[in-house]
Amino acid sequence: MIERSVWFRIARGFAWLILVLSLLGLVGGVVYSARSVRQYFKGEETISASDVKTAIEARRAGASGMEGLEASPGHLDSKAEGQLTTEAIDIFNLLPPESQNRFGGKERVRLHLVMSAANIQGGDVNVQ
Known about the structure:
This protein is an all-alpha fold. The protein has helices at 2-42, 49-61, 78-94, 97-103, 106-119. The chain is built from five helices and no strands.
């Protein structure tokens, strides 16, 4: 009888501990999600579709990562940019190591070529 009451008290204490921890988790989840819902309805930390499109176009034009160069008014399509990138890397790999270091790396040379090709007025992608 004594053993049963001891084990019963331990089991009851453990059940209360689990209950309290569950309730704390529930309250924490409600508080966390309420804060997120409040930010959503206030419009905080939101990005509009036009902001995303502007960032994508700037990235395609090569504006990010190029400090000294201006963003180009036009842009290449993805197929032409891929071909240009492949050819630029092949040409860059043929240069001697001291010339590779002078130009600032593969990515800088690639961005410069893509921006230069996008600045060519008239013609189609093949002309660029």
